[in-house]
Every structure is written in C-alpha cells, then in structure tokens.
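quick q for whoever's on today - can somebody do inverse folding on this one?? i tried earlier but teh output was garbage lol. tokens:
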C-alpha cells in the first residue's frame, strides 16, 4: 500500500543550518498494516509523514501509494489517498463549524464539489450512528461547535473525519501527545477500533514506548533519518522496552537519548 524508496530531504542545504532529516529512507508497508513509529527528536518522523502527505517534496527518492507514484503530486490532490490526525487537537477541524458540518466536509474529501445541501437528514442520521460508536455521547451534540469540545473529544471527531472515507493510508502524528494520560488512552482505544474495523493501513508516530509496542502489528524506530529497528509479528508482541532500547543501541551504535521517549515508557 505504501512504498517509500531512497527518500532524502535536507532543510537549508548549503548553509550552516543545513539539517538532513531523511537520509536514504526506505519503507514498504502492506495493505492493512498498523505500523508504530518511534525515535528521538530530529529522527525524521514528522518529516516522513509530511513527505507522504505532500507538505514538501523530497530532494530525492519516490513515494508510491497503492501503486500510484505520488512523489510529484501536489498536497491537495494527494489528500484523496490520505487521512491525517495531528498532535494539536486544534488542527484538522473547522472550530467554528458544527460537528455535523465538519463530518460533511470530511465525507466529501476527494469528490467533485457541486451545489447540494451540505448536510442532509440522512447524513445526520449516519453521523449520529458513527459518533455513537465512540462512546463519548457526541451523537447528541451534532449541532455543537467543534471548538467547544475537549481535546479528547476533538481528537476522536478528527479520527472519525480522517477515516470516514476509508483512506488508503491513515497518518497519526503523535495524536495523543497533547492529551492527559487517561484521555490519551481512550483516544488510542478508539484509534485501534477504527483501524481494525476498517482494516486501515496506518502509520502512527508516538513518543510513548509502551504504546509503540502495545499497538499495531509492526514497529519501526528511526534514527538520523533512517530505519534502524524494524520488528513485527510475534517478535513485536514479546518485545519489552529494555529489549527495544538494546536493539536501538546495537543498530545505531549509540544509546537512545530522547528523555521524552524514555520517560514515557
């Protein structure tokens, strides 16, 4: 479903501030895989997601989604393949619009625009049913402005918006990092439910080692713009945090130094 080949990206090239964020990055993901991504600050995690989403063009390499080369495809055209949830609960939604209106926009992503009612009675019934599955009582708040929701409620709505058209790839960029532990745990459970039900191919960046091991069927760890650890299946299920740190040290030749990640284990 996703094929990233020899991806390279350097910011501010030729200057004293030059920073290579992706350094010959390779990654192939099968349809339906749920891949967690972990790494220290500056490892290239968000740069990877932004490259896949088309926020910026790589210096070299290719990106294919479901057999389509999207490397040079502009961000707005690439959006039809993707669903994305950001770290900031304020992103990804229109805060001054109702929950139902936000879902209507998401439901029409990638389709041709025409003059029709934005949210019909049938649409609202469908959205009410979808929201009820979240278990947050939002099915009774279709007319509420999204900006009035709590961070956890908003991330749950954003998840629903990102998956309502079953994207080819779901990108989750530390989407629970700004939430308190209890809310983050609830959002992760909702995430797993939606990913499993829709069989979504998913890339989830997390700073929490426990979550990286607990969720998904494959885990990759990045360092200096490359994959240095890649575990899946039973090996991932049996993995402990200390074993993961040992693997990183052997693969990279250095100790893992991100306090944010280590303290979140």
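ok took a stab at it. sequence:
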């Amino acid at each position: 479903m996703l094929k990233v080949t020899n991806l390279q990206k350097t910011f501010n090239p030729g200057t004293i501030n030059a920073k290579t964020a992706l350094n010959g990055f390779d990654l192939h993901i099968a349809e339906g895989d749920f891949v967690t991504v972990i790494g220290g600050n500056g490892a290239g995690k968000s740069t990877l997601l932004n490259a896949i989403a088309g926020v910026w063009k790589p210096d070299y390499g290719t990106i294919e989604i479901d057999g389509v080369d999207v490397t040079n495809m502009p961000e707005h055209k690439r959006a039809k393949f993707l669903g994305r949830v950001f770290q900031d609960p304020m992103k990804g939604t229109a805060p001054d619009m109702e929950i139902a209106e936000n879902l209507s926009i998401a439901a029409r992503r990638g389709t041709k625009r025409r003059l029709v009612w934005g949210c019909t009675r049938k649409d609202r019934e469908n959205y009410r049913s979808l929201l009820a599955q979240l278990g947050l009582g939002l099915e009774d708040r279709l007319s509420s402005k999204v900006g009035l929701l709590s961070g956890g409620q908003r991330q749950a709505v954003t998840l629903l918006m990102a998956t309502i058209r079953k994207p080819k790839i779901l990108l989750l960029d530390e989407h629970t990092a700004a939430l308190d532990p209890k809310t983050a745990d609830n959002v992760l459970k909702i995430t797993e439910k939606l990913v499993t039900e829709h069989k979504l191919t998913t890339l989830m960046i997390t700073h929490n080692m426990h979550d990286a091991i607990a969720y998904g069927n494959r885990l990759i760890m990045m360092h200096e713009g490359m994959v240095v650890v890649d575990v899946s299946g039973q090996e991932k299920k049996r993995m402990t945090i200390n074993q993961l740190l040992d693997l990183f040290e052997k693969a990279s030749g250095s100790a893992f130094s991100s306090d944010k990640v280590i303290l979140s284990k």
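fwiw The chain has one domain: 2-93+166-262. also The longest helix spans residues 181-198. so keep that in mind when u check it
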